[in-house]
Design a protein that fits this description.
single chain, mainly beta, eleven-stranded antiparallel sheet, seven-stranded antiparallel sheet, 63% strand
Length: 309
């Protein structure tokens, strides 16, 4: 079965064009910070990069490196880019061109429930080769602590760490992505992505979603029969309804302030996407016509790339 360790590893070492990126987000009571470590390759250009953005700053910072600066070790897992490194238990970001230095501990990741049919968030699509974009949820949210140094001032981080990754050749043509570990009403985790999926001669809107309330995981996905029954924008709010069997979930999503990031297209970091760190999402979960839960999530990571126009 595909495992956490399998998904953590480098997948695209020999393919061109290709990209692969590891995403980390830490939220505590004073700062939200996100980091992307990635590699992007075409025949003409090969790039290694680090993108960092956080709520103390107004913009994303990115540094690029020659491909030779990327060092990968499978066992024990480690990625090194000059002074920065990522291991199973630690993330360290350091470069004189960045205004921030970051150290984060990674312990006891909270994993997705697995079955043979759906070993990962991609479900049975995880077994397919040459998908345009593969997605992995590495850690739904685990307690963490660390240090962020920004403009010579040090901040102690004590919050929740979320981890995911993507690999393939391009991000989807259009998609919506939402993630939060900060629920007002109770301990809960939200991950949602809806995207245009090209699959050989056909295309469809793919849905992958996890709503974890306490220890219970609700999985909504196209491979379980989930369908979008409403998707529209009303002023600054994205309204989305997804139905799957006896369950319906309704979303009201507000992104707020966003940061412009580089994203992959045909192996090059040539697209732009806007991501929020302080978005807000309200959800209502129904079983048949009975509302089981109403939840409000703050500190949401939100990206809308042409899904709601």
């Amino acid at each position: 079965m595909i495992t956490y360790n399998t998904e953590l590893q480098l997948h695209q070492s020999y393919k061109i064009p290709a990209f692969e990126g590891w995403y980390f987000r830490v939220v505590d009571n004073q700062i939200s910070v996100a980091v992307i470590i990635g590699i992007a390759k075409t025949k003409e250009k090969q790039e290694v990069f680090i993108q960092v953005f956080h709520t103390l700053s107004e913009a994303m910072e990115k540094v690029s490196y020659d491909i030779e600066c990327f060092q990968y070790q499978k066992e024990p897992f480690q990625i090194m880019i000059k002074e920065s490194f990522f291991r199973k238990d630690h993330l360290h970001i350091e470069d004189q061109r960045l205004s921030v230095m970051l150290d984060i501990d990674i312990k006891a990741p909270k994993l997705l429930r697995q079955t043979k049919y759906a070993p990962t968030i991609m479900g049975p699509f995880a077994y397919l080769k040459n998908m345009q974009c593969n997605h992995a949820v590495l850690n739904l949210g685990s307690p963490t602590h660390g240090t962020l140094v920004y403009q010579h001032q040090s901040y102690n981080l004590k919050g929740i760490l979320y981890q995911e990754k993507d690999w393939g050749n391009s991000f989807p043509k259009k998609y919506i992505w939402v993630q939060s570990n900060c629920c007002q009403e109770k301990e809960a985790v939200l991950f949602l992505s809806c995207a245009a999926i090209p699959l050989k001669c056909i295309g469809f809107t793919g849905i992958i979603m996890v709503l974890m309330i306490g220890d219970q995981q609700y999985r909504f996905a196209s491979y379980y029969g989930a369908l979008i029954t409403q998707a529209k924008k009303v002023l600054d709010t994205y309204q989305l309804t997804i139905r799957q069997g006896k369950y319906t979930i309704k979303f009201k999503i507000r992104a707020g302030k966003t940061y412009r990031l580089d994203s992959p297209e045909n192996g090059m970091m040539q697209r732009n996407v806007e991501e929020s760190l302080l978005g807000h999402t309200e959800i209502k979960l129904y079983k048949y016509h009975q509302c089981l839960d109403t939840l409000s999530f703050d500190h949401c990571g939100i990206e809308n790339d042409h899904f709601f126009i």
